[in-house]
Design brief:
The chain has about 170 residues and is mostly helical.
Length: about 170
Amino acid sequence: MDEIINNFDIKLENWWDEHCDRIMQIVVTPKNPFPQGITIGLSVSEDLKNYLNNTDKSLTFNSYLKKFISESPLSVKELAEKAHVNYEDLRNYLYKKKRVTPYKKDVIFRIAIVLKLSFNDTAYLLSLAEVAFKPNDTFDRAITYFLTHEIYDLDAIDNLAEQINIGTIFRDQY
C-alpha cells in the first residue's frame, strides 16, 4: 500500500465559496503522470469494450479438445475406444465447421480422464461446452475427486464408482 501511496503527491487545499463557507479538498496527483498499472483517460465503458474485444473467439470446445489430443499419444480412434465414446460423434466434435459439443457431460468426463487432463483443464473444457461441474452432484464430485487426485486408471475408477453406487463410468458404456 505504501508503494502505491508513494507514487502520488497528496495535499490539502482550502478555499471559501461565495457564502464564506470553508471548503477543503484533498488533491491527489501522480508523481509520474503514468504510473505502471494505472490506466489514465479510459472510462469504464471503454475499458470494458477493450476487454471484450480482446476475447479469443477462435477458442472453442473442439479447438481446445484438439489441442489436448495432439499432445496425447492416442489417435482419435484410440481415444474414442478407450473413452467409450462413439468414434463418429468424437470426429464430429473435432472436425465439424459449425459448433458441435457433446450433449452429455459424462462424455467429456471420460475423454478428460483418458487424456489425463487436470481438474482445471477439464473445468475449462466443460465451460467451452457450456456445462459445468455441479458441486452438489455425486457423480460430478466423484469425477472431481478422480481428477484432483490424478486417478486415471479406468478399472480403478469404475471399481470406486461402483463402491459409492454411482454406476460405472467406463464399463458397459457406448
